[in-house]
Here is the input.
Amino acid sequence: MHVPDSQLEKTGAVLVDTPGLYTRMRFGYDRMTREFRDAAACAIFVVKSDTLFLEQVFAEFQQLLDLFSRIFLVVNVDSHKRDVGPDGKLVPSLEQSRPEEVLKAFERLAMSAPLQAAAKDGRVRMYPVDLLQAASTALSKTGPEKASPGFLAFERDLSDYLASNEYMSAFLRDSLQRAEALLRDLQAQFE
Here is the structure.
């Protein structure tokens, strides 16, 4: 395996970008997503801000909550988006001017009860991040001071979690739960 990013060499983390859970795709990509999900240490769930309030986006989220002790919910915002203001002029959108307000609106208006409980318990952490800007900053090698605060918070929390005793304990617990599920499936097959 080739690890092109020096940050991955330092942390030992391997990020796997899989197709979305809620999209029905050809060629078995949805099965591949589920196979990676079953072998992953934690989940990073990325959703565009314009689909954040769609119920089907989170249809299978309960399965992630059952599998992982920690889920990082990254809301991909567009920091260049503009809206038409009351006077007909273009103004910065809420995503651009106050992306954290998008998350607050999601929490108040559309978040399911299990997701709310997991967020309250600290199992789900949410971050508004312009991923295009974050990728551009990383590729330009301009330095971490140019990265967005949302991305820096996400990167720091993910690194801290993967290096923590809490993660090791959660990894063992999650692995045992997966083993129990496999044994139940095996028992059902034998019966």
